[in-house]
């Protein structure tokens, strides 16, 4: 999708965005992209919106207004789309843009005492200029809201996050049920949850910043290290946006193989999800069953890619290598093997009375809220939201194969679990439709030694294991990207925890976290 940005001007921005949401039904805020557009335009944001009825997408560009010598501001859209909460805080964290009216303008990934805005073009990254604090991070019970007064001056209003009598429990950053270094500051009243404040960034590696100094082929290695269970999907999005910008026409063989590999990767992801969901609820047998069968999936992928966790298979213009001579036969054997074993996961865990008691009615989130909070993937489809990118914005062969978009109706953790079960069957269906029909042809369309992308801005997204994963590319015609922004699958999921769990019990946090498929390196980047 080549971006043709709408621009409304600072004074009209809030009203025009409200019209897009309320009058034209652009009810899904896909992402907010902060960017330093250069000395002429300065700092600003690009908003990508979708109409969930027609699946039409639009992009809006808004340049930040400079106030005083150092401050930049844009009106917040949090009251229109709730997933803007963490998305705007991310932009503030990396660019220093203050969003007017946002009640919680704290840093999101960086430490609260970090100095500077690391994704600005003038940020000095030399170690001499950036001595990272070595002490414990200071904590505060207060946050800031910024607004412009009648004189146009920036005014700060302090809001209290925690009251004197609030009892706070930290889940993470070292806790098995948070699937990595995710910290959830949980305010409780007895065993009832009052608020959840996600605290992110413990493994933030600055991948988007690193990509700005890399050539396009060099950037590919970073994608596999995000959600390592969706390495194919992440790299697919990055090569997809580059190939679309360059106008590269792929052979049918490449498209067939990519579609099959994506679905094998989805099965890999879902098997580990099912296993860890059971393990989080103390059911070890189901975890061992899933890990047993996941090994067979990885064996089939490894014979072609050479990797198990880090795949390194997709390239700009095709594939790293052709499929192994035994790939077709082994994939068909795998599909035949897996089908009966999926029922086993239900027999030992999914249909257990304890599982139903722990997951049914827990972490409830209705359709409207899922869209408003950007809860994509199986978690959103559990509420009946038809958000599958493979259906709404098909790529490769997804418009040529028959598969069902699995939807729930109970909007709870049990439906999220069952959707993962049923999506394994759908992935097997897709693979079986393609595996005997892979055409002859090139597995790689040769590119120039130095790849340069034409000037422009593009967006490309895929359906990852946990939801929509997208990549924004701003090219200035050079061999390196001017700006790359990745839409992680997990960020909006983590941002919805507070809504899902307010009024629930502490044990329900663990159960809901088990049903939400997030991996922290994808979230933190």
From TrEMBL:
Keyword Cell membrane tagged: yes
Membrane topology category: Peripheral membrane protein
Annotated GO CC locations: plasma membrane
Organism whose genome encodes this protein: Hallella mizrahii
NAD among keywords: yes
Keywords annotated in UniProt: Cell membrane, Membrane, Multifunctional enzyme, NAD
Subunit structure: NDH-1 is composed of 13 different subunits. Subunits NuoB, CD, E, F, and G constitute the peripheral sector of the complex.
Catalytic reaction annotation: a quinone + NADH + 5 H(+)(in) = a quinol + NAD(+) + 4 H(+)(out)
Name by which UniProt lists this protein: NADH-quinone oxidoreductase subunit C
Gene3D superfamilies tied to this protein: Cytochrome-c3 Hydrogenase, chain B (1.10.645.10), NADH:ubiquinone oxidoreductase, 30kDa subunit (3.30.460.80)
PANTHER family the record matches: NADH DEHYDROGENASE [UBIQUINONE] IRON-SULFUR PROTEIN 2, MITOCHONDRIAL (PTHR11993:SF10), NADH-UBIQUINONE OXIDOREDUCTASE 49 KDA SUBUNIT (PTHR11993)
Subcellular location(s) per record: Cell inner membrane
Entry similarity comment: In the C-terminal section; belongs to the complex I 49 kDa subunit family.
Sequence ranges assigned to domain NADH-quinone oxidoreductase subunit D in this UniProt record: 280-449, 451-525
GO molecular function: NAD binding; NADH dehydrogenase (ubiquinone) activity; oxidoreductase activity, acting on NAD(P)H; quinone binding
Residue ranges of domain NADH:ubiquinone oxidoreductase 30kDa subunit in the record: 15-127
